[in-house]
Specification:
By secondary structure, the chain is mainly alpha-helical. The chain is built from 19 helices and two strands. Strands 1-2 form a two-stranded antiparallel sheet.
């Protein structure tokens, strides 16, 4: 194993001088003890290399969300142009989510083997290229395959980026940094909305959807910037060196070893509850409010804008809350608040204006709970299998959570849609609370080989 007591400076793979592990740990401890002034003091305190890693992950997640969300805007046009059914459209979305779960785990394993930065580059290039391929498809089958393959990169980018930013930021501020990176999803969602409005106002609908997908190639050049300016995290390089010296390699099944499998299972259950609740609420509430409450504002740009703003604010708040009160308390707080919002939506009489206003807390609570997932999973697993563990748990939750919208639709044939949403949301957020209570608190945990 690598000698953690060594103090001799050495060179990085990029030729830059790096202090010894003991000196680095001492410096990190001193930084953690230094009080910050202001909400962004943590950002001013990090190095230029860490800032480049932060922005590479942030921008990557924005572009990932942008490319992924394009599908939701082109479905009505595809139904009109190709004559596909709503079931066909739903199948495309489900296949994308399921393939993203596979891609997320695969990218996590790959990041343990070839590095976080290289894996991030591959996944961004992957989803950009196959979003462009979607623009060239001629029928449902081709689009189904293209989106399925694109989903591998969509899921993989989160895994690689989340591990990368989680490893480069000091423990005291890890929750803030990773949460703010994840807030990029709301920015990408808003950007895709803006591009949809521009493209479909300038180009006939039968061609506009292709133009929108073609814009999805835009993230590809960003890979060049990442390759030039972003370095692998120190803790990962040290682990790789230790593995070389010990002549061992990470295994796909290491996260199921006897000493770690219980953590893997509980973290997977937590991720299932978080994502199942999100999909249950965000997928069906607009339909419920329009069809059963007959609120005309649903589906308008105003409502979507309020939800997106609430979502971004929720990500930011969740990022700071998880560092202030701890990961477990943050999960429980947001789970309770999310369930309360669902009860209000499905049980209380609402008018259009009140429903519009409630779009903000809906987006806020449903997204805020996600901010703690990245740092929590980063801190749960040892460096050697961190990518594999984080990739599996989060994407296992995504795969199971993706079934919630289908199950709600099926159950709503026997009960009201509002009741079905409430039942599944309660179950999902109840699972979050129970899983969080059984897992250890990781706030402030040092990442070491």
């Amino acid at each position: 194993m690598h000698d953690l007591g060594a103090t001799t400076p050495r060179l990085t793979t990029s030729g830059k001088l790096r202090m010894g592990a003991k000196d680095q740990l001492t410096a990190d401890a001193e930084l953690d003890e230094a009080p910050g002034k202001g909400p962004f003091s943590w950002y001013r305190a990090i190095s230029s290399s860490e800032k480049r890693a932060f922005w590479s992950c942030k921008v990557g997640y924005v572009l990932d969300a942008m490319d992924t969300q394009f599908l939701s805007f082109v479905i009505p046009t595809l139904i009109a142009t190709w004559g596909i059914t709503r079931g066909d459209a739903g199948l495309i979305g489900t296949v994308t989510l399921l393939s993203s779960a596979v891609g997320g785990w695969a990218a996590g394993v790959l990041s343990d083997r070839i590095g976080r930065v290289k894996t991030l580059q591959i996944t961004i290039l992957w989803f950009a290229i196959f979003t462009l391929v979607c623009a060239l498809t001629q029928n449902l089958t081709q689009l189904l395959w293209a989106r399925g393959i694109m989903g591998l990169g969509f899921g993989g980018e989160w895994s690689a980026g989340s591990v990368l930013i989680g490893e480069v930021i000091r423990p005291r501020d890890r929750g803030k940094a990773v949460g703010i990176v994840q807030a990029g999803w709301a920015i990408g969602w808003g950007l895709s909305t803006l591009l949809f409005m521009i493209v479909f106002s300038l180009v006939p609908a039968e061609y506009a959807w292709r133009v929108l997908f073609a814009i999805g190639i835009a993230p590809a050049p960003f890979v060049i910037w990442i390759r030039r300016f972003v370095n692998e995290p120190d803790v990962h390089l040290k682990q790789k060196q230790a593995d070389v010296e010990a002549q061992v390699r990470p295994s796909l099944l290491d996260i199921f070893r006897a000493d770690i499998v219980w953590t893997t299972l509980r973290a997977s259950v937590l991720a299932t509850g978080v994502q199942g609740g999100y999909y249950a609420v965000t997928t069906w509430l607009p339909t419920y409010l329009k069809t059963e409450r007959h609120l005309s504002v649903i589906g308008t740009g105003n409502y979507l804008g309020v939800v997106i703003v609430g979502s971004y604010c929720g990500y930011l708040a969740g990022a700071y809350v998880s560092d202030m009160i701890g990961r477990k308390r943050a999960f429980i707080t947001f789970a309770v608040a999310s369930f309360a919002i669902v009860v209000i939506y499905t049980r209380l009489p609402l008018d259009n204006l009140f429903m519009l206003a409630l779009g903000f807390p809906l987006g806020f609570c449903a997204s805020g709970i996600f901010s703690g997932m990245g740092p929590f999973l980063t801190e749960l697993f040892p460096t050697r299998i961190r990518g594999s563990g984080q990739g599996f748990c989060y994407n296992f939750g995504r795969a199971i959570g993706a079934a919630f919208p289908f199950l709600i639709g099926y159950v709503s044939q026997r009960m009201t849609l509002g009741h079905a949403i409430g039942v599944f949301a309660a179950a999902a957020y109840g699972v979050v609370i129970l899983a969080a209570l059984t897992l250890p608190e990781t706030k402030g945990r040092q990442l070491q080989t």
